[in-house]
Amino acid sequence: MGVRILFLGPLADLNGRNELTxxxxxxxxxxxxxxxxxxxxxxxxxxxxxxxxxxxxxxxxDLQAVDGDEVAVLPPVSGG
Length: 80
Known about the structure:
The protein has 80 residues and is an alpha+beta fold.
């Protein structure tokens, strides 16, 4: 089953695809290790948020995804 990672909005364009499935477990360090250097820089930005199993994490380093979880990488909010 694994962990499904969704890249939303412009982050999908930067990543070259909108989703990726990896083996569980998935923590913050491993997420940073599996993405490109460009995506890593975006993930480390304070403006990009991470949601796991439907809940937005207060601290990205708290990411602990298990088999069957969905992790969403949320782009910065914009608008007016």
